[in-house]
Design a protein that fits this description.
alpha/beta, Alpha/beta knot, 9 strands, 36% helix, binds 6-chloroguanine
């Protein structure tokens, strides 16, 4: 899968993709991440990419022509590429959107700065607008990194062969159970005995209960949409009884 990031700050993207799983994914050719500097597509002598808003007001607006030329250059190589604009006004990004986007072979990620882009960019050049949450960042660059990371995890071979993105939190609508590794005792805080027992049935029972407990305590909203078995519901009742007593 290929990502073309349109940005005024391409240097922001150097290190995140040179580490760990995403670096390996690039090395294996599973993903390709390129940056396109929008400023290179400003045709005037001073390479102006922003201007004051018509009608007055605070800040600067990113101009339409450099963005249009940058997008059109990427589209020369692939006319069917999908263009996503990262903005706090977009549709909220989640695991489901990440999975959907992972079925595409090529995305353009347009990163806004300042007071955003000229509305004609959104009307004429963008297919989809995405926000990564209800807070305001200084630009779309960090959001683009988040999106690429979450989407790439769904591509076959990016995670270890024995793991799949589907198994992780939110897909089954439960949070993960607590994990421990050596030592068995740290400053008097012991690893739960059942995990050292070698009794696999007891261990999976404990993990199920702790995943349900954690979800109930931290993200009860996830339980509404979860596909809970009768067994799960019994365990939840048991946890609720333990809490009140
Ligand atoms: Cl995509 N951009 C900016 N600037 N702020 C955000 C965001 C995006 N998503 C959440 N906050």
């Amino acid at each position: 899968m290929r990502f073309d990031i349109l940005t005024l700050f391409p240097a922001m993207f150097s290190s995140p993709f040179q580490q760990s799983i995403l670096a390996k994914a690039i090395e294996k050719g599973l993903i390709e991440v390129r940056t396109v500097n929008i400023r290179d597509f400003a045709m005037d002598k001073h390479q102006v990419v922003d201007d004051a808003p018509y009608g007055g007001g605070q800040g600067m607006v990113m101009k339409v022509e450099p963005i249009a030329r940058a997008i059109e250059q990427v589209k020369l190589g692939n006319p069917s590429v999908r263009t996503v604009y990262l903005t706090p006004e977009g549709k909220r990004f989640n695991q489901e959107t990440a999975r959907e986007l992972s079925s595409r072979s090529h995305l353009i990620l347009l990163c806004g700065r300042y007071e955003g882009v000229d509305e004609r960019v959104r009307e004429l050049l963008v297919d989809e607008e995405i926000s990564i949450g209800d807070y305001v960042l200084t630009g779309g660059e960090l959001a683009a990194m988040v999106l690429i990371d979450a989407v790439s995890r769904f591509l076959p071979g990016v995670l270890g062969s024995d793991r799949s993105a589907e198994e992780d939190s939110f897909i089954g609508s439960l949070l993960e159970y607590p994990q421990y590794t050596r030592p068995p005792s740290f400053r008097g805080y012991e690893v739960p005995e059942v995990l050292l027992s070698g009794n696999h049935q007891a261990i999976s029972g404990w993990r199920k209960k702790e995943a349900l407990r954690r979800t109930l305590m931290r993200r009860p909203d996830l339980l509404n949409g979860a596909s809970l078995s009768e067994e799960d519901k019994k365990i939840l009742e048991e946890i609720s009884r333990e809490i009140v007593s």
